Amino acid sequence: MFVDSRTLPADIRLEADLCIIGAGPAGIALACEFIGHPAGVIVLESGGLDFSTATQALAQGRNTGLSYPPLTVTRLRYFGGATNHWGGESRPFDEIDFEVRADIPFSGWPFGRSHLTPYYERAERLCQIASVPYDAQTWATEQTPPLPLANNPLRTHLLQINPMYFGEAYRSDLEQAGNVRVYLHANALELDTDANGRTVTSVPAMTLERNAFSVAAKSVILATGGIENPRLLLLSDRVHRTGVGNHHDLVGRCFMEHVSLTTGLWLRPDPQLPLGLYTLHAARQGDWHGQVLGSLTLAPETLRHERLLNFRCELFEPLPHDERLLPQGQQSSRHLVGAMQKGHVPDHFMAHVWNVFTDLGGALGHEPRTLSEAALKPLLLEQVTEQAPNLDSRVTLSPEQDVFGRRRVELRWQLTDVDHRSITRTHELIAAALGQAGLGRVKRLLDEDPRAWPVKGQAHHMGTTRMHAEPAQGVVDPDCRVHGMSNLYIAGSSVFPTASSGTPTLTIVALALRLADYLKEQLG
Amino acid sequence: MTADRLLTRRRFLGALTVAGTWLLARRLGPLRTLGQMAGQEGLASRLVQLFRSPASAACIGQAYLQQAPHEGQERRLLARLCPAGRRWHMADASQLHRMLREQQADDFAQGRVVLVHGWTLSVTEARLCALAALHARAA
Fold first, then answer.
1. Which of A161, A163, A292, B10 is the most buried (most CB within 10 A)?
2. CA A456 to CA A444: how far, in whole Å?
3. Dihedral of CA A149/A150/A153/A157: which sign?
4. In this complex, do A361 and B94 lie within 8 Å of one another by their Cβ atoms?
């Protein structure tokens, strides 16, 4: 059932067994799991069924870290949440993501990959993707063969892509559910606790029209995303002055993104080398039709041995007139001056590299076949790397206030030398591995000074209420219950201890389903 | 004369030949070095001739030598390019090509790479290019 909170009597107190705050993928997955269950469920959604500028403005915040898009762009406050602009990329995390890894601070989950396997299978159904391995063997076809990488540390990495909107896909199910009430236009303001600060007693909420009400529930689940989850905890400071669940000053810390960066230029041995598997293409598995995107990664043993962060490397055709492809003589004066200062002279170096590669890598006796640089069609290597957890990369409260008088967020996204070293070394290993396989040559496009790297995020907000068995190292315990709280749980990517190389949504949903199972047990 | 005696004589003459060759080689040491150098020169030319685009190789080699000037001598480059233990001087073009490709792949596998104008090259191909650059200069 859907309820427009603007029509509620003022100051009404609603009651339920569960109160889920947020109707994004985590909140909707949780709510759907309770359809038909004896428990009464209330879902509070800030927005309505469509985008509203006024509601979206509540997502405003300050950015004081690395360059980042406005926070109103990277989130969506209406039913369906971030899936309303989701690209649909899905992949479970890898085994290595759950391990404690040398040189990666705060790495390690409280459980291994196999523990999540049954939840991933259920999540795949909910995300409407195929439950099959995400490897080249499963997805390659005659038309889309994998790169020949035998005896090579490079591996093919697959994403399934099905951009489905949770709001559209599950709206009807929730509308018809007798035990689930979805309150639209309901902005949770904070979490009220008992005098000890150990139990959430009610969730005060308000519409933009100032219609106030509250929800009392046996269990409360925060599912508002990696920025709003810590904000609500920090805003709830009536009993604990530093906020709920923040005894160890961890709430909002370890903000992680998937660090996206063009690291190199790949000159293929043959511009006609088939790379269909590594471009977005239609695919099918049994009855499932969708899209698949392949990329490159390194074998887990190489990642462990080299102490690298997990990553994937996508291949992109550069846009026309991309300066990075031009002979140095045709690049902008700024690049040219920089190159000259480093002792480089204008030339057609890329064509020379290709000639030498084919001379030594090809068969003897052929005529020289110098191609023009334009015909070489190099590809850009775009690395998408997990970020090492970093206490100084964080979400805090800013002095600015929203229309409810609640403090907005301040995001300070920061990387460390762990990230820089890993990205650099990964690029080196990719370049060497492609060379080893006879698959052309790679040019490094990374500036020597990492501070000059034009890193981008992927609007994946993770880690800000991280999971750990020890309260001193995590905001939530392995059951996703906030340490020190009896009835407060968190769903979503904010609980991720580490971020993997892929996309968070499938793991968000898998963890939500796991939490649903746990809560059902608790409710008896 | 029995077969045993014949064998004994053959063995004796064989041993004498080996010893003589060894003594001769010791006495003619300087001459042997000269011969080897002549062979090296031939080898260097044959290596450079593997390039169908020698100008491209020379361009890359020039850039490599700017960052590794200490390798700017043919003798040093050959010593690094053609390590002992393989029959470089005896190899024909096809064999040289194959040996170099194997060495290139091994370079990449072992991380023996250099960055030249940002391009990751195996040290073998960079040095081959340097050899081409030296030949181009000499020409």
1. A292
2. 18
3. positive
4. no
Q: How many domains does chain B have?
A: 1
- Which of A343, A349, A435 comes nearest B108 by C-beta? A435
Query: b/e map of A5-33 (b: 16 or more CB within 10 Å)?
Result: beebeeeeebebbbbbbbbbbbbbbbbbb
pLDDT band of residue A325 (cuts 50, 70, 90) is low
- Average pLDDT over every residue of A365-370: 54
Q: How far is residue A319's CA from residue A114's CA, in Å, rounded to a whole number?
A: 41
Q: Is B61 a member of any domain?
A: yes
Which of A82, A301, A41 lies closest to A182, judged by CA? A41
Which pLDDT value is given to residue B9?
A: 56
Residue B115 in contact with partner chain A when CB distance is under 8 A: yes
Q: Confirm whether B1 is domain-assigned.
A: no
User: Would you call B97 and A364 a contact, using CB atoms and an 8 Å cutoff?
Assistant: yes
Torsion of Cα atoms, A7 then A12 then A13 then A15, to 10°: -40
What are the backbone dihedrals phi and psi of residue A255, each rounded to the nearest 5 degrees, phi first? -60, 125
Q: What is the pLDDT of residues A434-493, one digit of tens each?
A: 999 999 999 999 999 999 999 999 999 999 999 999 999 999 999 999 999 999 999 999
Those of residues 28-67 in B touching chain A at CB distance below 8 A are 50-53, 55-57, 59-60, 63, 66
* Residue B2 lies inside a defined structural domain of this protein: no
pLDDT at position A271: 84
Whether A486 and A199 have beta carbons less than 8 Å apart is answered as: yes
ipTM: 0.85
pTM of the model: 0.89
DSSP, res A367: P
What is chain B's pLDDT, residue by residue, as a tens digit (139 residues)? 444 555 565 565 556 555 555 554 444 444 444 445 445 668 999 999 999 888 999 999 999 999 999 999 999 999 999 988 788 888 898 999 999 999 999 999 999 999 999 999 999 999 999 999 999 988 7
Q: Give the three-state DSSP class for A362.
A: coil
Residues 6+ apart with CB under 8 A from A330: none
Name chain B contacts of A436, Cβ cutoff 8 Å: 105, 108-109
Q: Do the beta carbons of residue A233 and residue A489 sit within 8 Å?
A: no
From the CA of B91, how many Å to the nearest CA of chain A? 14
Instruction: List the one residue out of B61, B67, B48, B107 whose CA is nearest residue B83.
Output: B107
- Closest alpha carbon to A184 in A171, A173, A201: A171
- Contact list in B for residue A431 (CB cut-off 8 A) is 113, 120
Full residue range of the structural domain in which residue B128 is found = 8-138
